[in-house]
Design a protein that fits this description.
two-stranded parallel ribbon, D-Maltodextrin-Binding Protein, domain 2, 349 residues, alpha/beta, globular, 2 domains, 12 helices
């Protein structure tokens, strides 16, 4: 009897130890990862490129939760004492805020097998506790190929011959902010003074020379039903419009451009940060990056990825990416309310 009790006690102790090990920070023994997603086509393509193959190769389950960047940051902040997310994706620079608040688990470049093959911008903020850039969507000009020749400048949006055929995007949309900043820079403005850019757009809208759309779907509607020929917007959405049957091209203006830098970040305080890091590393691999190019029209951050010949004129890659301006996330966040107030004053007056 005593022996059976002793054996039971040992078994209980071993089981408890195993449970504790599974809950220890940094353990990769967890069977599930909770990962944020942007939903829609992004989620569909990301599932095919990363989620399903990673699940199969690592015998884990990936639970996806649809959260856009600002909402994802709010959840991390609300759950700081008991986080419920393992990997969070940001597209608007929120990773800087999250890292500064200790919400992210820093990633050592040595833990990313793909690190040696990545563009410099992909890993430049790892030392500051932020996750790597896994996708880049450059900003540029989307234009109707059946209506006009390839534009060359941000200022082409103000050409008299394109009056009533131009769409800008509201600053509530991050692509609208990035487009405004490039127009502002072309017109002599700076991050400290966006008056030249906002004034130019405001005057155009008030004169009836252009319209303002708020969302990507609004922009698609404008191209299909409102006779829009030209719009500052993103590379990936140009491909979305092409797939929807719109005859559009995409070009990077001669003055240069910026882009949306999507980062993948491991969340601090979770029990499976090793597995989360492995998942992020997988998203940086050649196989996943190739699918980001062909399925989502994102620029690859892995230099070993070869862009297919039929997409080379549509996807910015290689040394061109090093020329992209990456605005400081803290500047964008801290000045957003001020810029939107200035924008509303111009657009609605």
């Amino acid at each position: 009897m005593k022996r059976r009790l002793a054996i039971a006690a040992v078994a209980l102790a071993l089981g408890s130890a195993a449970s504790l090990t599974a809950c220890m920070p940094g353990s990769s023994s967890a069977a599930e990862l909770v990962v944020t997603t942007f939903g829609g086509e992004w989620e569909k393509n990301f599932t095919d490129a990363v989620v399903k193959p990673f699940e199969e190769e690592n015998n884990v389950t990936i639970k996806q939760v649809t959260l856009y960047s600002s909402d994802a940051l709010a959840q991390l902040q609300a759950q700081k004492s008991s986080p419920q997310i393992d990997v969070v994706f940001f597209s608007g620079g929120q990773e800087k805020v999250a890292a500064d608040e200790g919400l992210l688990a820093p990633i050592d470049p040595a833990d990313l097998t793909n690190a040696p093959d990545l563009i410099d911008q992909a890993t430049s903020e790892l030392a500051n506790g932020q996750g790597p850039v896994v996708q880049v969507s450059p900003m540029g000009l989307i234009y109707r190929t059946d209506k006009l020749d390839q534009p060359t400048s941000w200022n082409d949006a103000f050409k008299p011959e394109y009056r009533q055929h131009v769409a800008f995007t509201d600053l509530s949309n991050s692509y609208g902010t990035l487009g405004m900043l490039m127009i502002n820079q072309t017109r002599g403005g700076t991050i400290d003074d966006v008056t030249p850019g906002i004034d130019a757009i405001g005057q155009s809208v008030r004169a009836g020379d252009s319209i303002v759309t708020k969302t990507s779907s609004d922009l698609q509607q404008a191209f299909s039903a409102r006779d829009i020929w030209l719009a500052p917007y993103s590379q990936d959405y140009a491909e979305t419009l092409r797939k929807a049957g719109q005859p559009v091209g995409f070009t990077m203006p001669s003055e240069g451009t910026t882009g949306s830098f999507i980062t993948a970040n491991a969340v601090a305080g979770r029990s499976n940060t090793d597995l989360a890091t492995k998942f992020i590393d997988y998203a940086l691999g050649v196989g996943a990056q190739e699918k980001f190019v062909t399925g989502m029209a994102y620029s690859p951050v892995n230099t070993k990825v070869a862009v297919p010949a039929d997409l080379q004129s549509k996807i910015l890659a290689g040394p061109t990416l090093a020329k992209l301006t990456r605005f400081d996330a803290a500047d964008l966040t801290s000045r957003s309310a001020e810029w939107q107030k200035q924008w509303q004053e111009q657009i609605t007056r």
